[in-house]
Amino acid sequence: MNNKFQLPLQTMNLVAGFMVWVILSSLLTFIIEDIQITTQQAAWVTAVPVILGSLLRVPMGYLTNLFGARIIFIISFVLLLPPVYYVSIATSFVDLLIGGLFLGIGGAVFSVGVTSLPKYYPKERHGFVNGIYGVGNIGTAITAFAAPVIAGQFGWSFTVQLYMVLLGILIIANFFFGDKKEVKVNTPMMQQIKSVYRNEKLWLFSLFYFLTFGSFVAFTVYLPNFLVNNFGLDNVDAGLRTAGFIALTTFLRPVGGWLADRFQSLIILMFVFSGFTLAALLLSFAPSIHLYTVGCFAIAMSGGIGNGVIFKLVPMYFNKQAGIANGIVSAMGGLGGFFPPLILTSLYSVTGHYAIGFMALSQVALACLVIVIWMYYNDKLALSDQVLKTTPLGMMVTEKKGKIITVNPAFTNLTGYSAEEAIGSTPSILSSNKHSKEFYEHMWNSLNEKGFWQGEIWNKRKDGELYLEWLTINSITDDSGEVSQYAGVFSDITDKQ
């Protein structure tokens, strides 16, 4: 019963952590009425919580494996209490920066759940489970919508202090209901990092999450202030629209995980990055509020599904190093939310619009699309190569004129010829001289007319021993339909005669 309770409990922990993480961006329009800061300083105030929220994700994943989610969540929420109170009594830009930096702990707790929860479920459900946990992102929507409403009635300082009550409730809940017997993994952090950092897929997944989750974070902190300043919306309306963006992204995350559990993950990512590319292009043309809403919703849909798919892929490729791999990938995603608001603000101050920034986003998305397509076909080639190397059937591929261009290990085992000896020669090295000219004419007629030939044939091993094989030859054609190669697959059936 305690194990079954971990998914809802840890999801609620993520909701609370993300609610705290975005306090400053959600209440900034109220805060600047009391604390005078420039537009550039405001961008730093909203971006700073992302720094610690990103960098702490790597050690958080490692520590979760070492001590268990219960302990890490409790310590995290206890450590959040002082900065939340400090922000509530802030009187200067420096106060907001210092307090905001440590609010990043709220965003870092993401690594705890994605490291802990897969331990309770079979591998084929990891995508959906991590997707459900990712619904905890809705905490940013709750704050974006509710915090401005409460602040409008009771002031932003009191609103921030209410979050201390929320943290206290979660500390108590984790103390009593957290799993005290969670399976621990005690592998030194540097050893785990060394085991994954040379794997190119880790950094490709980090790039993908940098875009998908980074866009989610960036739009979450950038939209409230942008909608007020650029479109003249009031604070509550801007908060509601931001909450809608967050909610759509969040609830599509488990959909992405569910799709990844059932279909080819890389194909789904192709649609995701295509959506990003088109949406960012639309936003780069500085459209009206209606088209801007369409573009943002397209970003939300692509980001939500993409987030779910990526955290299906990470534990699938890094099963034994899931803690550190999840930490690194999620850290890159968090950093993806740090830079865009600062870059957009800087570009706006220089050019007077955000077009270049959104155009850059579309190009990064396009690059990710190209990489995913490459990964997809590279994986198919790797699978084909694995099949070629491990199958017990002998395989040989020749040019159109008959010269052997590749063989597999089973070919060597069955014939005695090494790959070096066979490649460059012709299949005649195997000839037993037991078949007539008519036999080979029939074989070639079948290949030319049907594209394949199949039957029994006597051949000779390197040591001169004759053996009977069952041989299938297929014609391989190029894009124009012309035969370019022949592929032969055979097995020794001598003992069956």
Automatic annotation (TrEMBL):
Record-annotated membrane-spanning stretches: 12-32, 44-64, 71-90, 96-115, 127-150, 156-177, 202-223, 243-260, 267-285, 291-311, 323-348, 354-377
Domain PAS: 386-424
InterPro entries: MFS, MFS_dom, MFS_trans_sf, NO3_transporter, PAC, PAS, PAS-assoc_C, PAS-like_dom_sf
Domain of life: Bacteria
Subcellular location per the Swiss-Prot or TrEMBL entry: Cell membrane
Major facilitator superfamily (MFS) profile domain boundaries: 5-380
Keywords: Membrane, Nitrate assimilation, Transmembrane, Transmembrane helix, Transport
Pfam family, one: PAS_9
Recorded topology in the membrane: Multi-pass membrane protein
Mitochondrion listed as a keyword: no
Record bears the keyword NAD: no
Stretches assigned to the PAC domain: 453-497
Family: Belongs to the major facilitator superfamily. Nitrate/nitrite porter (TC 2.A.1.8) family.
Protein's recorded name: MFS transporter
Annotated source species: Virgibacillus tibetensis
